[in-house]
Amino acid sequence: MSNEAVIITQARMTSTRLPGKILMRAGERTLLETHLGRLAEVGVPVIVATTTNQSDNPVVELCAALDVPVFRGSENDVLERYQGAARAHEARHVIRVTSDCPLICPELIRAGLDIYLSLKSRSVYLSNAEKRTYPRGLDFEIFSRRSLDFAAENARLSSEREHVTSYIRTSMPDIHHESYTDQDDLSDWRITVDTDDDFKLVKLLIEHHRAAEMDYAALKALLKAHPRLMTINSHIQQKTI
């Protein structure tokens, strides 16, 4: 039976800046467990797309313990990995997120998905990151399986294979872009985990402020009330595509 929409999150242990970060612990859980727990609140199936590398066996084992389905594919051809995961679960639409976002907010994804589905088009790409107002670490992208298949069949550049939506965003014929934005522009904040200092911030937010239990409004209020928290990793430069 086909799924109307699924969340596919990419996860691997061989991060270039902070290897093994997704299994680092903050509070009583690993970052990946916190990430998956929050995604489960969206209310659609969640699939972890990892690699066939032996180094990612611990990811597969953790997901098995959590009863979260896994698809294993190429480390570098992430576009093909996503296509394989979407096909395996007969998805009609895909919500793409990444596992370095342990505090991703389910209510934002759900609201974005509701808008996306209301448009009733397989040629829509909706994201809260293309026109960025939300902090890094809350990113999501929504597109059709049709768009994903077309990209997987036509993308030729290595950058288009590594970065799942690059072809869809820049070269897909007749694609319609929709942006999900907030009235507050907090795009200079980082609550993603890519470096040691990113991890220090997220660990502090989870262990001392119970951020893993917060929706976006509460998380935003917390960070505005404690502006010094955001100085912990404000010097980190985001990797460029």
Helix content: 25-40%
In DSSP terms (H or I, runs of 4 or more residues), the helix count works out at 9
How large, in whole angstroms, is the Cα Rg?
Answer: 17 Å
The CATH topology name reads Spore Coat Polysaccharide Biosynthesis Protein SpsA, Chain A
Please identify the structural class as seen in this structure. Answer: alpha/beta
CATH homologous superfamily grouping: Spore Coat Polysaccharide Biosynthesis Protein SpsA, Chain A
| Arrangement of strands in the largest sheet | 5-4-1-6-8-7-9
Major β-sheet, in short?
Answer: 7 strands, mixed
Instruction: State mean pLDDT (0 to 100 scale).
Output: 96
Shape: globular
CATH class descriptor: Alpha Beta
State the total count of DSSP E strands.
Answer: 9
Describe the structure.
It comes from Nitrobacter winogradskyi (strain ATCC 25391 / DSM 10237 / CIP 104748 / NCIMB 11846 / Nb-255). InterPro entries: Cytidylyl_trans (IPR003329), Nucleotide-diphossugar_trans (IPR029044). Keywords: Nucleotidyltransferase, Transferase. One of its GO terms (molecular function) is nucleotidyltransferase activity. The chain is of the alpha/beta class and 241 residues long. The chain has one domain (3-231): Spore Coat Polysaccharide Biosynthesis Protein SpsA, Chain A. The chain has 9 helices and 9 strands. The strands form 2 sheets. It has a 7-stranded mixed beta sheet with strand order 5-4-1-6-8-7-9, sandwiched between helices. A two-stranded antiparallel ribbon has the order 2-3. The model has no long low-confidence stretch (mean pLDDT 96).
